[in-house]
Amino acid sequence: MAAKRASQGFAAAPSRDVVSEEYGEIEGLQVEVASLLLDHVYAPLLEDQHVRGVMPAPSGAPAVRVVLGDRDECALARLTAYEIPLGAGEELRTSHDVVALLRAVHTGTHIYPANRVTSVMGMDLYLVDPAHVKQAPFTADDWASSLLRCLAHLT
């Protein structure tokens, strides 16, 4: 059957093992991103913006959704969600790349085309296109947090 489909110009479907492995990598990265962003529930990610939630993208899409807002904000209409793709060509972004993109999109003025803005659960949702965003640099707090995480995992 696969040979017949290939002869008709259809690409062969990836094996289930390959799909499972890729999905497992995405799931692992989503967990890693959520873990790193937990630091920013109480310590601001940027100025007065705190992480208010982390959600996987729908249907197992290779992305993560992060909700930002003031530290004690709970009104959904006053929170903003960003969906950041985890893929970067053949490679996956790191959790630090996601933090850098979040800082970049939440700084300054950004104009999003109508097809990149939607809503989820009563919040504005911005679909980030990393090709059009220059990542924010690592901060001194990021370096300190990375060092502490490394030291904590040694024990």
Which terms summarize this structure?
155 residues; 35% helix; 4 helices; two-stranded antiparallel ribbon; alpha+beta
Can you walk me through this structure?
- The chain is an alpha+beta fold and 155 residues long.
- It has four helices and seven strands, in the order H-H-E-E-E-E-E-H-E-E-H.
- The protein has a five-stranded mixed beta sheet with strand order 1-2-3-7-6. Strands 4-5 form a two-stranded antiparallel ribbon.
- A hairpin with a 6-residue loop joins strand 1 and strand 2.
- Mean pLDDT is 81; it is low at 1-16.
Topology:
Blueprint: H1 2-7, H2 16-37, E1 50-56, E2 63-69, E3 80-85, E4 87-88, E5 91-92, H3 95-105, E6 117-120, E7 123-127, H4 140-154
Parallel strand pairs: 3-7
Antiparallel strand pairs: 1-2, 2-3, 4-5, 6-7
The helix/strand order is HHEEEEEHEEH
* Tally of separate helices: 4
Amino-to-carboxy terminus distance: 52 Å
The average pLDDT value, as a whole number, equals 81
Q: Decide which structural class fits the backbone.
A: alpha+beta
Beta-strand percentage?
Answer: 15-25%
In short:
The protein is α+β, with helices and mostly antiparallel strands and 155 residues long.
